[in-house]
Design goal:
Blueprint: E1 5-9, H1 12-22, E2 26-30, E3 36-37, E4 45-46, E5 52-53, E6 56-57, H2 62-74, E7 77-81, H3 86-99, E8 106-108, H4 116-124, H5 131-158, H6 169-185, E9 190-199, E10 206-213, E11 216-217, H7 223-233, E12 238-250, H8 258-269, H9 273-285, H10 310-324, H11 358-361, H12 367-383, E13 388-399, E14 402-413, E15 437-449, H13 458-467, H14 473-485, E16 489-492, E17 495-498, H15 500-512, H16 519-533, H17 539-557, E18 565-570, E19 577-583, E20 588-593, E21 602-603, E22 616-621, E23 628-634, E24 639-644, E25 659-662, E26 669-675, E27 680-685, E28 694-695
Parallel strand pairs: 1-2, 1-7, 7-8
Antiparallel strand pairs: 3-6, 4-5, 9-10, 9-15, 10-11, 10-14, 12-13, 12-15, 13-14, 16-17, 18-19, 19-20, 20-21, 22-23, 23-24, 25-26, 26-27, 27-28
Helix pairs in contact: 3-5, 5-16, 5-17, 6-15, 8-12, 8-13, 9-12
């Protein structure tokens, strides 16, 4: 019986798709991700021997490794097809180390897309494992281990609780905390605006805003000043002094990469970064298309590159001409380049089969997959289309010494806007002549106040991390998850709010580990990782520069005092200072008196140090066991709820919440409820499941 070629992929989801392409001569197996890593219980790095790592087989992977070794012994050769990035290269390296004793014929193949042509081409052209990429991933892993395992215990000793620090995690938290400090320090200032509604010889009427006085920008600080201007302009006519028209070209944006996919998915659909990457992974690994074979619909979704292969670009241009016409395709193909160095030579995130239009395959995709695919598909084709032509019109309206300005635009040629949704709104202005005297229809003076900078949401945090060169977009979902898990931040209207604990951690790290918290230092490490991947820097020297500074900081804090998390409030029992502490017994934070053990006062607080009311016994009895119901606070949801006092024997929770109006569909009351699936509150009909109305925010 002829031996088969063993192909090892990371995810079993790819296996069924790839096996259909390769046929009977191949056995497709999965490593289920990493098979080896640094040990959990110890550092796993020999600091005295050039930072030599000590790798162990991952717990729980014994059976996977056993089966892979058995398959390797029977195989003709082995093709390692882990993901085409540095992490995938490291997985391939560790698989080779484990399997080389069982089979010496081991090669690397790269699947940048899961399509028949790409798979067959990769299998026919096997490669060697890229040692430089492996070294770069190893350096990143060791840097993260050193930062986490050396600084986290310091936080746990000096502050308390299950705190953690990270090379990228802590800097991301610093960005959130710095913005919060800006917001708290912000002093709002009053200002007034004046706008008028005018009408000329032709309709429609239009609004014009006061901008200048005697050629200088107008700033109206108070109502008195506003009233003075209103009195002055009431004496003068409104004259259309000048009409300016400019024809501008708006160029298309580049195709999506990992970071911009995450940002656009949040902006348009409010998808968390983690959900976006999961959906993109599914599209990459393969979808069963009705009437066609199972295929990966997009290229590999972890990429920093805008590059598009010449073949695919030509296909896209042909498609644009056939569907929209020759004028929508530029004479010279659009090429986009990043200013900074990119991580890998992958293509952008693009559809693998460009002619699978979203509307044609929407029945084969779930709603989330369809949204992400449509986003990628539209952005890819738009990037290869002609620029839009926009005619910008400006009316300068004179009133004595004052100038009012109105701006509008008309799309003369849609260009790439024909491919995108929601980006082609027009502001039309009437066809008037210069020097016309305009009729005043209404005047609106408005009091305003300057606003503080906005808190970061997932999209804006991803954007600033990328701009500063901190971390990689593929790791941002995990970073955000960790910040929430450690109770460093919480979400308010989908924006990050740092907890008091998160602020204290940043302050401590800023004071004692300045290099780790320095944006430029962290970004420089990313550049070093790129240089290692290119073979321009030895990974040992890269780590050495980092660890020498870390070791100095660690030595300085060794004998420093423990930080007390003062709440700023006094103990109601003895008047001592209240301190936030962590209980190993309850695995949660609480407030206690600084005079312990003389005073044993304790209380509970929310993530943001707000006092939690003590459990309140309700008059109503549990409908299941007749024990009293209790109103209590849930740390998991950050909300109060009413449940049975017999918990955990009785798990009854009252589902009725405060009434929020009447259902527009069936007339029954609306209530506020908590969804265990989304971990969020929503307003829905009490007539569920007969009535499924949910109130949109």
């Amino acid at each position: 019986m002829a031996k088969k070629t063993l192909v090892i992929v990371e995810s079993p989801a790819k296996s069924s798709t790839i096996s259909k392409y390769l046929g009977d001569g191949f056995l497709i197996s999965s490593s289920m991700g990493h098979v080896r890593d640094l040990p959990v219980a110890v550092l796993g790095i020999d600091l005295k021997n050039n930072y030599k790592p000590f790798y162990v087989n991952l717990p729980g992977k014994a059976q996977v490794i056993k089966e892979l070794r058995q398959q390797a012994q029977k195989a003709d050769k082995i093709l390692l097809a882990s993901d085409p990035d540095r992490e995938g290269e490291a997985i391939a390296f560790h698989l080779q180390e484990i399997l080389k004793a069982d089979n010496g014929e081991i090669f690397r193949v790269l699947f940048n897309e899961i399509t028949r042509s790409a798979i067959l081409a990769a299998v026919e052209n096997p490669l060697a494992i890229d040692a430089h990429k492996v070294a770069s991933q190893q350096m990143r892993r060791l840097l993260d281990r050193l930062a986490g395992y050396k600084i986290s215990p310091v936080l746990q000793r000096k502050i308390g609780g299950p705190l953690s620090a990270g090379r990228v995690q802590s800097v991301a938290l610093k960005i959130i905390v710095e913005r919060e400090k800006e917001i708290r320090a912000f002093i709002s200032e009053e200002y007034w605006t004046i706008a008028v509604e005018l009408e000329g010889s032709k309709k429609p009427a239009f609004s014009s805003k006061l901008e200048k006085c005697n050629g200088k920008n107008v700033k109206i600080a108070a109502q008195d000043a506003c009233n003075a201007i209103l009195a002055e302009i009431a004496e003068n006519p409104y004259i259309l002094e000048r009409i300016q028209k400019k024809l501008k070209k708006r160029k298309p944006l580049p195709p999506l990469i990992t970071s911009t996919l995450q940002q656009e998915a949040f902006r348009r659909f409010k998808f968390p970064v983690k959900k976006t990457m999961q959906l993109a992974q599914q599209l990459y690994e393969g979808v069963n298309i009705h009437g066609a074979e199972t295929t990966g619909l997009i290229t590999y979704m972890r990429t920093d590159s805008f590059r598009i292969s010449d073949q695919v670009r030509d296909q896209a241009r042909e498609y644009i001409v056939s569907k929209l016409g020759k004028k929508y395709c530029p004479a010279t193909a659009n090429v986009f380049k990043k200013k900074s160095k990119i991580q890998d030579a992958h293509e952008c995130i693009r559809p693998t089969a460009p002619f699978f239009a979203p509307d044609e395959i929407k029945a084969d995709l779930n709603p989330g997959q369809l949204k992400i695919y449509q986003l990628i598909w539209e952005r890819f084709f738009a990037s290869q289309m002609a620029a839009a032509e926009i005619e910008e019109t400006q009316f300068d309206v004179k009133n004595g010494a004052y100038l009012f300005v109105t701006k509008g635009e008309v799309i003369k040629f849609k260009g790439f806007l024909a491919m995108t949704k929601g980006d082609s709104e027009q502001t039309l202005l009437p066809l008037l002549q210069e020097k016309e005297i305009l009729k005043l229809l209404a005047i609106d003076s408005k009091q305003n106040f300057t606003k503080p900078p906005a808190r970061y949401n997932e999209a804006s945090l991803v954007k600033v991390l990328e701009e500063k060169g901190i971390g990689r977009p593929s790791t941002y979902a995990k970073i955000i998850e960790t910040l929430n898990k450690r109770e460093y931040v919480f979400s308010e209207e989908k924006k990050f709010v740092p907890t008091d604990l998160g602020i204290r951690v940043v302050d401590y790290l800023e004071e004692n580990f300045k290099d780790i918290m320095n944006y430029n230092f962290t970004a420089d490490l990313e550049k070093k990782l790129d240089r290692v991947a290119d073979g321009q820097l030895d990974w040992v020297s890269g780590i050495d520069q980092f660890y020498k500074k870390l070791a100095l900081d660690l030595a300085k804090v060794k004998d420093s005092k423990k930080v007390e998390l003062l709440t700023g409030e006094k103990c109601p029992t003895c008047g001592g200072d209240l301190i936030k502490k962590y209980s190993l017994k309850t695995r949660g934070w609480f407030i206690g008196c600084s005079r312990y053990p003389q005073c044993r006062y304790t209380g509970r607080v929310t993530l943001n140090n707000e006092k939690i009311s003590p459990d309140e016994i309700q008059e109503k009895k549990c409908p299941l066991c007749a024990k009293p119901l209790i109103k209590r606070y849930s740390r998991k949801t950050g909300q109060y709820f009413i449940g049975c006092s017999g918990f955990p024997d009785c798990k009854h929770i009252e589902t009725s919440q405060e009434e929020m109006g009447t259902c527009p569909q069936c007339g029954k009351p609306l209530t506020k409820r908590f969804s265990r699936k989304t971990r969020r509150y929503f307003v829905g009909c009490t007539g569920y499941p007969e009535c499924t109305f949910i109130q949109k925010r």
